[in-house]
Amino acid sequence: MRRQRPEESGEQQDEANQTRMPTREQQSIDDESVDPEDLLPEHSVLKLEEYLAMQNAIGNETRFRILYALKQQSEMSANHLKEALEMRPNNLHYHLDQLCDVGLVQNRKRKTPDSDGLCSYYVASGMGKAILEHGGKELMRREHDFKDTYSS
C-alpha cells in the first residue's frame, strides 16, 4: 500500500486552507483582539508604552492647560506661558519638560531673538494637537452622550 505524501492528504490541504484563508469567525475574533498592541499602526514608529506615556502626561491638569495654550497660540515663550497660566517658573519648566519628553511639545530655538529678546519658544507637536483634538476635547464635546451615566 502506497503512503500519501502530505500534499496529497485531504486533511493536510484542509488544514493549509484554514491557515491561509481565515473564516468569518476567525476574522471576527481577530478584529476583537484583547491585545492593545493590535491598535498600533502596521509600521508604527512608536510603542504602546510611548502612547500611554502621552496619555498619562495629558492626564495632568497643568500639562493639559499648557498644551491647550500652546495649541491656541501656535507658539509661546516660557515667559508668556508663565504669565498666561499664572505659574511659577520652576513649576512651569517641570511640566514643559514632561510634555517635551513624551513628544507632545517641542522646544524650538530662533537664530535671532524676537522683539522681547527671546530665542526659545514652545509649540504643540502634531501629536500634541492630535491628542487634544481627538482625546480630551472630543470626550468633553460628547459629554451629553453620556449624561445619564454621570448624573446620579
Automatic annotation (TrEMBL):
* Alphabetized UniProt keyword annotations: DNA-binding, Transcription, Transcription regulation
Q: What is the lineage of its organism?
A: Archaea, Methanobacteriati, Methanobacteriota, Stenosarchaea group, Halobacteria
Cited InterPro entries = ArsR-like_HTH, HTH_ArsR_DNA-bd_dom, Metal_resp_trans_reg, WH-like_DNA-bd_sf, WH_DNA-bd_sf
This protein is called MarR family transcriptional regulator
* Compositionally biased region (Acidic residues): 28-37
Gene3D superfamilies, sorted:
Winged helix-like DNA-binding domain superfamily/Winged helix DNA-binding domain (1.10.10.10)
PANTHER family, per this entry? ARSENICAL RESISTANCE OPERON REPRESSOR ARSR-RELATED (PTHR43132)
Q: Which residues form the HTH arsR-type domain?
A: 43-138
Specify where the region named Disordered lies, as residue ranges: 1-37
